[in-house]
Amino acid sequence: MNFELSDEQKLIGESVERFVQDNYELETRRKLAEQDPGFSRDYWAQMAELGWLALPFAEEHGGFGGNQIDTMVVMEQFGKGLVLEPYLASIVMGGGAVKRAGGDLAAEVLPKVIDGSRQLALAYAEPQSRFDLHDVTTTAKQDGDGYVLNGHKSMVLHGATADQIVVSARTGGGQIDTDGISLFLIDADADGVKRDGFPTVDGLRACEIELKDVRVGADRLLGEAGKGFEILSAVANDAILALAAEAVGAMERLYKDTVEYTQERVQFDHPLSDFQVLQHRMVDMFMEYEQSKSLLYRATLEAAQGDAETAQRTIHALKHLIGRNGIFIGENAVQLHGGMGMTEELAIGHYFKRILVIDSQFGNADYHLEKFAA
Questions:
Q1: What distance in Å separates the CA atoms of residue 102 and residue 77, rounded to the nearest whole number?
Q2: Is the CATH code 1.10.540.10 the one for domain 7-118?
């Protein structure tokens, strides 16, 4: 498989890399994470001006007609800086669901998402569902020319700051049936929507959402009633690819920062990098990073080429490998730095925490290993 970025994608990668270098020093990130809304609205507007928010959307909606490869280029650089802005939540997940549903809603909503004036979130998880997208107890009962939604959604990434939320709800079938799941676009400030926001361990924001007799019109239905699982599954695959790219970016920083530290830290009159056992450890870290990056490229290319069956299996393998290798690299980076590796003042611990959270999103390493073997 020959994978090579186009000239335009290389330019995008360089642009994002400069943005991260100029704006995402660790102390700057810590301050942004501690203040509301948990990211910089100025940075978000700048991303819109640079065209990054338009990358995965069709030209008819004001986008650039890109695909998963363009998103990968952006997210890998974001991973190197632990960027806080809701690109994954609003563009890949929420925007991805609206894009795949198409129709009048896409024409109405996506231009505002692209110009940065509207942010979206995807509410798919529930307290009992763990990693199963099809385990849905939130209900949407038809009432006149609309629907009434009731239920609880958990761990909605950037849900507290979103303007609109894509919600999965059951219009038919049993609790774990794939048929009968529908997707609705609701206003975040609609009557009956209660949001409880909180910071996550990796410095991002999420929220719990309670839906009580939330009324939505039939025109807020994304796609066909009862057929939302196909859209949800495709969006989850795109999100996994984006998360894997972010994790690869974080892994690169972890192993490179560790190598640099061992070259500077002197023990027994020698830099730590002189000790052969530590050299072997860092070579292992590099190999795990390269293996993860190679599989990321393969999975992303297969998805972009539309080979759904092959891509699905590779995505399972990728998510497993990212979880396993990311934890290996993170643990060794912390160990080689000593106790200071987990302090707030050093970036190593922040990267490791982000990798741990990525492992738990859309299924951890063990979950995807089972899916791969099935």
A1: 29
A2: yes
